[in-house]
TrEMBL record:
<dbReference type="InterPro" id="IPR023214">
    <property type="entry name" value="HAD_sf"/>
</dbReference>
<feature type="compositionally biased region" description="Acidic residues">
    <location>
        <begin position="280"/>
        <end position="304"/>
    </location>
</feature>
<keyword id="KW-0486">Methionine biosynthesis</keyword>
<dbReference type="GO" id="GO:0019509">
    <property type="term" value="P:L-methionine salvage from methylthioadenosine"/>
</dbReference>
<keyword id="KW-0378">Hydrolase</keyword>
<keyword id="KW-0028">Amino-acid biosynthesis</keyword>
<feature type="region of interest" description="Disordered">
    <location>
        <begin position="260"/>
        <end position="304"/>
    </location>
</feature>
<protein>
    <submittedName>
        <fullName>Enolase-phosphatase E1</fullName>
    </submittedName>
</protein>
<dbReference type="InterPro" id="IPR036412">
    <property type="entry name" value="HAD-like_sf"/>
</dbReference>
<dbReference type="Pfam" id="PF00702">
    <property type="entry name" value="Hydrolase"/>
</dbReference>
<dbReference type="InterPro" id="IPR023943">
    <property type="entry name" value="Enolase-ppase_E1"/>
</dbReference>
<dbReference type="GO" id="GO:0000287">
    <property type="term" value="F:magnesium ion binding"/>
</dbReference>
<dbReference type="GO" id="GO:0043874">
    <property type="term" value="F:acireductone synthase activity"/>
</dbReference>
Length: 304
């Protein structure tokens, strides 16, 4: 028998008591295929021309120095396959070639190091700002993020991508500029996404109790780390994501779209809002619904 999600009605309580939402990107707001088939190939196809054009830029030099230090440290640690980068007094051509080889090696290994993500972010910046690339979001993401922000929820991002890359994706998205809905961004400079200490740091910086923060991710290990830090967490099931186990589905609330945060809705064109942004439904509305049901039962009784 195929694994089953926990009952859908449990989603009705996902936002009750929540003050802030912390969002993963890849596999949560954005298809994994966009990262693998658009962003990563753009770097490998354009890194040489980018470095040749921007080699003297201070930020690029800082990124190269960080990659050089990282490679030297990993060489001492005997990391297999590490590509060293020659010192600054080497020729421009030699340095660029080594940086390219280092970056491609790290990407082939699917590494998520801060040093790699920083240089990737610089390369993507040109692509986003020139409209060569648009940040791809699942169709429910933009409308729901706007609604959540309007209702007073504070929205934050925690991704292995650099903060600059995160801002670019949401500022130049296929659903318009969504940068104004976010209150802050976190990347690997905060720590690993699978380390509960990272989530404790984030809660402290946000200024909310961990229990008042809901973390949305497609990775069970990240959800477990967040819960270990006292946060709430729900798993997001999207096309192209790695299949969750039955244990994953039973241990965490699971949603397939962000509008499921509000639970099942009868309305086709509108999503019922929680009173005060994150409270329970209005009691008067519930009484009216009960009254309507009673009237319907009386009418059915008269017809019988």
């Amino acid at each position: 028998m195929a694994p089953q999600k926990r009952p859908a009605e449990e989603a009705e309580s996902l936002l009750v008591g929540v003050r802030s939402l912390l969002l993963d990107i890849e596999g949560t707001t954005t298809p994994i295929s966009f990262v693998e088939k658009t962003l990563f190939p753009y770097v490998t196809n354009n890194i040489e021309s980018y470095l040749n054009k921007n080699f003297e830029n201070a930020d690029v030099q800082k990124a190269i120095a960080a990659l050089r230090d990282q490679a030297a440290k990993e060489k001492d640690e005997k990391v297999e396959g590490v590509v060293e980068i020659p010192s600054g007094d080497a020729s421009k051509e030699d340095v660029i070639k080594a940086v390219i080889d280092n970056v491609k090696w790290q990407m082939d290994e699917n590494r998520k190091t801060t040093e790699l993500k920083a240089l990737q972010g610089f390369i993507w910046k040109e692509a986003f700002e020139s409209s060569e690339i648009k940040g791809e979001l699942f169709e429910d993401v933009g409308p729901m993020l706007k609604m959540l922000a309007e209702e007073g929820f504070k929205l934050y991002v925690f991704s292995s991508a650099s903060i600059q890359s995160q801002k670019l994706l949401f500022s130049y998205s296929n659903q318009g500029d969504l940068s104004d809905v976010f209150s802050g961004y976190f990347d690997t400079t905060t720590g690993s996404k699978r380390d509960k200490a990272s989530y404790k740091k984030i809660a402290t910086e946000i200024g909310h109790e961990p229990k008042d923060i809901l973390f949305l991710t497609d990775i069970p290990e990240e959800a477990e780390a967040a819960v270990g830090a006292g946060l709430r967490s729900a798993l997001v099931i999207r096309p192209g994501n790695e299949e969750l186990t039955d244990e994953n589905l039973q241990n965490f609330a699971c949603i397939e779209r962000f509008d499921e945060l509000y639970g099942d809705e009868d309305e086709e064109d509108d999503i019922k809002r929680f009173a005060g942004g994150n409270g329970e439904a209005d009691d008067d509305d519930e009484e009216e619904e009960e009254g309507d049901e009673d009237e319907e039962e009386e009418e059915e009784g008269d017809d019988a």
